[in-house]
Amino acid sequence: MVFYFALWFREKERATATGLFLLAAPVTYLVGAPLSTALMHYVTLGDIAGWRWMLFLEGLPAIVGGVLCYRYLLDSPQKATWLTQSEKDWLAAEFEREKASQPPVTHLGTWQALTNPIILYLSVIYFLSQVGALGIGYWLPQIVQNLSAAFSLTQIGLIAGLPYAAAGVGLVIWARLSDRFYERKFFTAIPLLLGAIGLFVAGTTQDPYLGMAAITLALTGIFATKSPFFAMLTQLFSKPTVAVAAAIISSLGNCGGFVGPYIVGVVKKATGTSSAGLFVLSGALLLAALMTLFIVIPRHKSKQASLQALKMKEQ
Predict the structure, then answer these.
(1) Contact indicator for 255, 35 with CB cutoff of 8 Å
(2) Which of 15, 19, 25, 261 is most buried per CB count within 10 Å?
(3) What pTM, to 2 d.p., does this model score?
(4) Which residue range forms the structural domain that includes residue 128?
(5) Span 86-96, pLDDT tens digits
(6) Where, by residue number, does the polypeptide cross the bilayer (predicted)?
(7) Domain count, the chain
């Protein structure tokens, strides 16, 4: 999708576009759990178990979506019948103007990309962010219960959804700000740092309200970092290379989704509390934030183009 957005959106709009796409993740966490529970308990047609109906019904939208994407997602604005020719020409001219004002970016083949140090470096950053994201996501209900044993299972489910609601709002706002200031690197590092702070506070406090506020801050930071992070790829690589780079980074980085819950589980077993595991996740996010600050983006593109974009927006 990062490559697809590069074909359709100007660079100063890509973080917002990516953010709206990634908004599906917190919405899924927010809606998916109660929906799945309802399907398992209340859909019992025939002799088919509720959990089978859940898998069937929740799988249908993905199948329909795949067909619709194949039918309607075009790989070029020039093929869009719902755009006028003048709109197509304007967008093509905007892309050409961007290309002319940019310094040379890296173009890599598939095998070169697999061993490219920049891509591998970015993969480590994304891996660390996913360690924190899925580590806390998997154990969030247990963490909420630890914060206050007075919560019922229903309350835990509802409370665990609140941080994702806040994360969805924060994700969109942060993506728009990243586009507004035409800045990617610091807009990636700052929410990672906030996520690290949130997890650290959540692991130290015994106050359930402060704990939930800290977890909300952490998840908001974790989700907010994704849009500017992936939008940053177009500042470093050519459009064809972006597709390969995003695939490699996502594939390697998502391995953190296994490591994060595993770490929390191991630490919880050793210490008897999941709070200690939050410190490890906090450290992972802190390291990711520090590593992000060392990414080198061509000055011409990140600074001069920023001023140009702001001037164009004011006109």
Answers:
(1) no
(2) 15
(3) 0.78
(4) 2-314
(5) 888 888 888 88
(6) 20-41, 53-73, 118-140, 152-174, 186-203, 209-230, 242-264, 276-297
(7) 1
